[in-house]
Design a protein that fits this description.
It is found in: Cell membrane. The chain starts with 11 loop residues before the first helix and ends with a helix. Helix content is 71%, strand content 0%. The chain has 7 helices and no strands. The relative contact order is 0.16.
């Protein structure tokens, strides 16, 4: 008679290897979405060159945002003190993988590419996430809430700025916005703390700089 073996406890080194693999897949790999692309059923219209470049610039920003989200969540999960908080962060990161794959696919359709600075965006965001997480799980979740609310706001800006007939990009961003709102609501329900001034303002300034650079690079 055989008995089931106990689940293997992952060491800190195991988690480090997992984080490294996630980083490589996010920055250099081709993430695969678990959910269908929301834009797949929309017509892929031919845009004039200025509109195509503008749509590509906006979707590059959104792709960078998802790279940063992956890094932030993984950095926060790496130092989370409570296993439930860690699981919450990694679950949200998986949905961000869907977003990453959808944005990458849309960039290819627009004959464009991801940001050349994605390794830099990932490394910096991972470090910020880890620093936020070291303050404790309440602050960790508070950082999730503030991040997601700011992402919701910039998606609204992009929906208003995209070419009117770019329905594929709009469909992708609509689902992304709903997911981000749910991540923030879940973090609040799990005990997120309100971040002190001036942290939200500094986060907004960093996001603005990222969007300016990523639009072209």
């Amino acid at each position: 008679m055989t008995t089931a073996s106990a689940p293997r406890h992952l060491s800190r080194f195991d988690h480090l290897l997992d984080d490294a693999q996630r980083a490589l897949e996010t920055v250099l790999g081709a993430p695969v979405a678990e959910r269908p692309n929301p834009g797949a059923g929309e017509p892929d219209i031919v845009m004039d060159e200025p509109d195509r470049r503008h749509a590509a610039g906006l979707m590059r920003i959104n792709h960078v945002g998802e790279v940063c989200a992956q890094a932030l969540y993984c950095g926060q999960a790496a130092v989370a003190r409570d296993e439930a908080t860690r699981a919450h962060l990694l679950e949200a990161a998986q949905e961000e993988t869907d977003h990453l794959a959808w944005c990458a696919e849309r960039l290819r359709e627009l004959d464009s590419r991801p940001s050349l600075l994605n390794p830099l965006w990932y490394g910096g965001s991972f470090a910020i996430g880890a620093l936020a997480g070291l303050r404790g799980d309440g602050w960790n979740l508070g950082f999730v809430v503030e991040t997601e609310r700011q992402v919701e706001a910039h998606i609204d800006e992009h929906l208003a700025s995209l070419p009117g007939d770019d329905h594929r990009s709009r469909a992708i961003l609509g689902v992304m916005k709903a997911d981000e709102a749910r991540h923030a609501d879940n973090a609040e329900a799990a005990g997120a703390r309100i971040l002190p001034f001036p942290v939200p303002r500094l986060m907004a300034a960093a996001s603005k700089l990222m969007k300016t650079v990523a639009y072209r690079l």
